[in-house]
Each structure stands twice: as structure tokens, then as C-alpha cells.
């Protein structure tokens, strides 16, 4: 009985702390004008960094603003948290898609952790609160890794964690970590030898057992600072653990929630790239003239071509609006398998629409501008080079197409209001439900022991 009363008191204290945090966040949050001004500062710093090939210029300016931690600042207003992080990524994506990808890789894990519904997991709630408060207080930039490697199997992981004498020892390597050298903290997913996933975090600088290697994309996407990372028997404690399936955490729910943020923010990044391409096309057609002195913008063919691009862009913006609503709705309820997967499919559709839109619009505008695109220093040269990675980030577009195809080619009519889940979705759903049952059993045992 005392244990139950203690738990109730802890929850009451946590609710009081949350109320205080809401008040503090409301008092300290920048208004729309301040947000806009800070975003202008970051965008101008990025333009200067590109001009001088010195990205310290951007990161120094970025850290002086409140932008990197806006997802934490608005954690109790997930709609605002998403829209503002999306706006930052979109603006930066209109200047350098590669650098915007690095920033997006900071935003999505920390914003997802900050807004994750944790009402049913007190341990996770306490751990995540300590983590995001530390990130905000210390003004850290956060890199992340899912421990994937380039191997002979799809989605192959290269790291493993072993419990050793009350600590955790991580060994192996991962191919992907953006923002690698500019970050202060790394949040990463790894797996126990028996297959259960876990999420750890630790400092990313001055750690001899954490080797940050060469650029994975040394040419086209070098500004994303994506590098290989090797764990040389890295030893961490319980204080470095965010969540683990062995502790009863809903790991697949957490990882899907993060991916929903990731896919949706990638859509925003692509829309920034598409918008910049449209603007460059507009400027070119209004300033370059025909032989009779009238601007190319007067040609009916150019009017129609640019109109098509704007309509494609607005359609993709509509998909992102749906994803924003899905994220906001998901934050307001306990995570259920069906709600997670529905939101995930909406986010994937937004990312698919936006990345395809960006790639096509950049191609159309490049053909309109012609060889001047590559004459040196033209924004379209950078966009042309970096937009090719848009379909490849996050959940790859080919996987998204396959899942959609599995659903539509089932026995149910496409005209019906709902389609059955794809085989891959059904498998994920079954895994989530199995782990949820295991989690409940683990928590029941813990309650009985306490």
C-alpha cells in the first residue's frame, strides 16, 4: 500500500512539475516575430557559411538562437513544436538541402523524445525529461544513429550491446551519423545479443572509445557531415540508457514515433528545396529577355510550365499538413499500434510526395535555366546535386511504394473506405502487439515486486 501511495505522490509531483514547466515554457517562448527574426539570422549565416566554405559560421549563429531547442521548448504544445521545427528545416532546405539534413537529424530525435506520450511509463518519462532538460540547458546539438551498416542484407545492423558487471558495453560500427562532428551528444539505437532493441545516449566529443570516421558522402552530400562511426567497447551506465525492451519499454512504439517525426520533417526539407527552385525559375524568367526585349516570363509555355510546378508544390504542401495533424493527434493520446501505423503511413506519403515533387521541380527549372545552372555559384547547381538524395532519406521511397502496392493489390476493392494492411505492415503490427504484451507482463512483475 505504501508503494502505491508513493507512486501516486510521485505522479502528483510530476503533474505539478509539468504545470510549472508549461508556465515557464509559455513565459520564455519567443513570439512569432522573434522566431522569424532568429530564422532570418540562421538563414543569413548559412548563406555566408556556403560563400566562405566555413560551416562554423552557421553553427555558431545557430547555437546563439533558440531554434535548435524549439522542439523541447514547445514540448507541451506538439503542434507548435512540429510546425516551427518544420519551418526551420524548410527554410534551410531552400539554401542547402545537405546542411538542412544535418539539422533535421538533430531535430527529429530530440523533438520526438520531448513530445513522446509517456503517461503509461513512469521510468521512461523520468529518463526522457532528464535528457531533454539537459540538452536544452547545455544548448547541445544532438546527432543520432540507428546502427545500420552497408552489408549484404537490407537493414543490417552493425552494433551490439552486452551487459557487463552492471554496465553496458557497446561494440561495432554504423555507416550513418549526420551532424557527426558538430554535435555534442549522440542518441543511438543498438541491440542486445538476443535481439531486443535499446536506446542509449552519450557525449560525442573527446571520447576515445567512440571513433568518428570519414565522410560517407564525400562529394554530393558532404555538408550533411554524415560519417561512419565505430564503437570500440564503449562502456555506459544506467544513466546513459533512455529505453530498453528488457525494461518493458514499448521500443517499437518509440522507434515508430521517431520515424513519424523524421519522415514528416524530411517532407518539409524537400518542400524548401522545391520552393527555392520555383523562385530561381521565377527570377530567371522575369530578368532574361527575348530578342524583342520582352521577358521570357511572357511566353505562354513558360507560364504553363511554372504553373504546373506551383500546383505540384501546393499539393505536396497539403500532404505535409496532414502529416502535421497526424503528429499532433498522436502526441495527445497513448500510443496504440493502429494509431502509430496510420500516422506512419501518412508521414511516409508526405515524404514521398514532397521528395518526388522537389526532384521533378528542380529538374524542370534546371532545364528552363539551362547551362547557366552550372556556370558557377548558381543556387540551382547545389540544389541539382543534393536533391537526388531526397527519395533516399528516412524510409526509402521504394519501400513506401512496395507497402502501398501490397495494400492495393489485396482482395479488397480500392473503392472501399479502408484497405487491409500490407503484409509488411501486418508483420510490424503483430510484432508491436507481441512486445506490448511482453511489456505488460514485465511491468506486472515489477509492480508485484515493489
Describe, in plain words, how this protein is organized in 3D.
There is one protein chain. The protein is α+β, with helices and mostly antiparallel strands and 450 residues long. The chain has three domains: 140 residues, no CATH class; 89 residues, Butyryl-CoA Dehydrogenase, subunit A, domain 2, CATH 2.40.110; 188 residues, Butyryl-CoA Dehydrogenase, subunit A, domain 3 (Up-down Bundle), CATH 1.20.140. Helices cover 58% and strands 12% of the residues. The protein contains 13 helices and eight strands. Helix 5 crosses helix 8, helix 8 packs parallel to helix 10 and helix 10 packs across helix 11. The protein is globular and about 85 Å long. The N terminus is likely disordered.
Tell me the distance between the termini: 10 Å
CATH architecture heading of the largest domain? Up-down Bundle
| SS element count, helices | 13
CATH topology of the largest domain: Butyryl-CoA Dehydrogenase, subunit A, domain 3
Strand content: 5-15%
Overall mean pLDDT: 87
CATH structural class of the largest domain: Mainly Alpha
The residue ranges in which pLDDT falls below 50 over 5 or more consecutive positions are: 1-8, 26-30
Overall geometry? globular
Largest sheet: 4 strands, mixed
Q: Order of helices and strands, N to C?
A: HHHHHHHEEEEEEEEHHHHHH
What is the domain tally? 3
* Percentage of residues assigned to helices: 55-70%
Q: For this structure, what is the CATH homologous superfamily of the largest domain?
A: Butyryl-CoA Dehydrogenase, subunit A, domain 3
Tell me the Rg in angstroms.
Answer: 23 Å
Q: How many beta strands in the DSSP annotation?
A: 8
Strands ordered across the widest β-sheet: 1-4-5-8
